[in-house]
């Protein structure tokens, strides 16, 4: 009987939520004016003295192309040059060329902009990347240099080409090469500070309104948090430690959960909805069907913006789709359902069972001709939910890793537990809860010292403790023995079950395992490949 009652209660609640989503008035975001002007309006209110785009973009325009060995991705799990720069660091065979690129004047000028645009950490007074979308309001110089978002003529957000993004990606790569250069020179504090600044800039850029920009910023933020722990851990294993307690605490403070980093302030990319609303207005007859000429021509143009040679074939495809596509009013209604569904989900707890249901996009839009114009570009919105959760875990692990290492440096010993690092090494902030731990458990992040807190040998002696790493493919699987000269910090992972880091699966769903935070997977993976002679 209790099980039946629980099932009935859950079903009733899900049905109520579904009805609320279906029939409630649109939220404020959805009721907003679906226009380019509405998306650009918040940027117009940012004072010029607080616009990081005006500081950065004129300098970033002159950044040089990275060495080819940086942009050639050899390992299958490295999907962008910045990851390669962070993972290989100064251990690659072409390190000299990477270092020379980072030390060249154009790149030094770009790095010099970071301290200014990240110095203020109060979100109400901090810098903002406030370049409007389109050419209006952008200087002729930046337009000429391709440092703006081109919307075509007439301007449509659905046509958006963020022309400055290739150089923004070079900027991320540059930061990670410079971090390696600083650490290699023994300037570990400086490397940590630079990464802290990059974390804040990536978080700043994550407030942009378009999905492509937001995804890049959040992935850059995730990599930077990993690299902060990597630099600190690598220093902790060196013969002569260079990091100082003061700098570790200084960087820790910039990462406080209710400070500028605050991941709960993240919003969904509102520009994507406006882009689709504009597109519907352009290719649909008002209150009618798809326009015979504009539909296939516009959709072919948008979906082949980076592959113009395929435009003719794309036009033929969209011409076939047109006859099966819903009309103007039905397509607009579906767009509103998409917006309401994602907005409702975004505001739910990670553990809410509603999130286990398929999204409106998955059920009615993805791969379906009826609403085909709503599909391109929106798929990654679903990915933002898991990415945000990983960021919560990465941020918590980075804070606790830095605070614990600060304790080690100050006391020349490993603390007995995370509670020992508070308040002296956390600026009074509490120990981080584990974001993957359910409200019923409410665990802190897990901490132990191998050998001391793990099973002993037959005579009570300390024995090496083996971490088994089984991350998502195509990352390599391997084992690492650890002794009492190290500490381990981990999250229970998506399965919400602690296994003392014996089975480390990171964020793999549907399998038993933990999410390792310290030692960083990046550091262990680098050492593993060096030992096998495979780092290249």
Shape label? globular
Distance between the termini: 61 Å
Mean pLDDT: 92
Q: Over the alpha carbons, how many angstroms does the gyration radius reach?
A: 25 Å
**How would you classify the helix and strand content by structural class?**
mainly alpha
What is the string of SSEs from the N terminus onward?
A: HHHHHHHHHHEEHHHHHHHHHHEEEEEEH
Instruction: Indicate the proportion of strand residues.
Output: 5-15%
Number of helices: 21
Biggest beta sheet summary: 3 strands, antiparallel
Strand order of the main beta sheet, please? 3-6-8
Poorly predicted sequence stretches spanning 5 or more consecutive residues: 1-32
Q: In total, how many beta strands? A: 8
Approximate helicity band: 40-55%
Task: Write up this protein.
With 536 residues, the protein is mostly helical. The chain is built from 21 helices and eight strands. It has helices at residues 2-23, 28-31, 36-44, 52-60, 68-71, 81-88, 95-103, 105-111, 114-118, 140-144, 165-184, 188-205, 211-236, 245-254, 270-283, 294-303, 311-322, 328-346, 360-365, 380-411, 521-532; strands at 149-150, 161-162, 446-448, 465-469, 478-482, 488-491, 503-504, 515-518. The protein has a three-stranded antiparallel sheet with strand order 3-6-8. It has a three-stranded mixed sheet with strand order 5-4-7, covered by helices on one side. Strands 1-2 form a two-stranded antiparallel ribbon. Strand 4 (465-469) and strand 5 form a beta hairpin. Helix 7 (95-103) packs across helix 11. Mean pLDDT is 92; it is low at 1-32.
């Amino acid at each position: 009987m209790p099980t039946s009652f629980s099932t009935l209660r859950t079903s009733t609640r899900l049905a109520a939520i579904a009805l609320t989503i279906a029939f409630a008035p649109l939220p404020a975001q959805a009721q907003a004016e679906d226009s380019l002007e509405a998306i650009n309006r918040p940027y117009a209110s940012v004072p010029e003295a607080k616009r990081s785009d005006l500081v950065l973009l004129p300098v970033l325009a002159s950044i040089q192309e990275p060495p080819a060995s940086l942009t050639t991705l050899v390992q299958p799990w490295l999907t962008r040059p910045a990851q390669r720069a962070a993972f290989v660091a100064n251990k690659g065979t072409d390190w000299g060329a990477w270092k020379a690129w980072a030390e060249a004047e154009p790149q030094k000028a770009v790095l010099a902009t970071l301290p200014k645009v990240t110095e203020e950490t109060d979100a109400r007074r901090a810098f903002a990347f406030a370049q409007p979308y389109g050419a209006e309001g952008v200087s002729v110089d930046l337009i000429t240099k391709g440092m703006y978002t081109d919307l075509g003529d007439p301007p449509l957000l659905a046509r958006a080409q963020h022309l400055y993004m290739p150089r923004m990606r070079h900027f991320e790569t540059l930061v990670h090469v410079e971090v390696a250069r600083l650490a290699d020179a023994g300037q570990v504090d400086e490397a940590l500070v630079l990464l802290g600044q990059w974390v804040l800039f990536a978080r700043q850029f994550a407030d942009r309104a378009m999905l492509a920009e937001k995804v890049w910023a959040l992935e850059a933020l995730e990599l930077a948090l990993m690299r902060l722990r990597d630099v600190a851990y690598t220093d902790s294993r060196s013969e002569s430690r260079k990091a100082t307690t003061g700098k570790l605490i200084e960087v820790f403070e910039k990462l406080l959960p209710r400070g500028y980093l605050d991941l709960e302030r993240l919003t969904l990319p509102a520009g994507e909805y406006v882009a689709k609303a504009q597109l519907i207005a352009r290719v649909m007859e008002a209150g009618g069907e798809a326009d015979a000429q504009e539909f296939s021509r516009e959709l072919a143009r948008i979906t082949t913006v980076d592959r113009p040679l395929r435009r003719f074939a794309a036009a033929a495809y969209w011409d076939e789709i047109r006859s099966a596509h819903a009309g103007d009013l039905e397509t607009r209604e579906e767009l509103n359902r998409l917006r309401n569904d994602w907005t409702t989900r975004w505001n739910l707890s990670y553990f809410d069972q509603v999130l286990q249901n398929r999204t409106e996009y998955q059920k009615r839009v993805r791969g379906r001709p009826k609403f085909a114009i709503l599909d391109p570009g929106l798929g990654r919105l679903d990915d933002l939910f898991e990415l945000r959760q990983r960021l919560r875990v990465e941020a918590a692990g980075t804070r606790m890793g830095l605070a614990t290492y600060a304790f080690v440096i100050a006391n020349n010993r490993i603390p007995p537990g995370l509670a020992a690092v508070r308040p002296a090494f956390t600026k009074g902030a509490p120990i981080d809860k584990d974001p993957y731990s359910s409200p019923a458990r409410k665990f802190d992040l897990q901490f132990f010292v191998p050998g001391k807190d793990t099973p002993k040998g037959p005579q009570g002696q300390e024995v090496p403790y083996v971490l088994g790493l089984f991350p998502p493919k195509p990352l390599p699987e391997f084992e690492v023995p650890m002794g009492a000269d190290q500490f381990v910090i981990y999250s229970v992972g998506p399965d919400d079950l602690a296994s003392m880091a014996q089975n480390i699966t990171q964020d793999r769903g549907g399998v038993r395992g933990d999410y390792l935070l310290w030692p960083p997977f990046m550091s262990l993976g680098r050492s593993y490949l060096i030992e096998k002679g495979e780092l290249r």
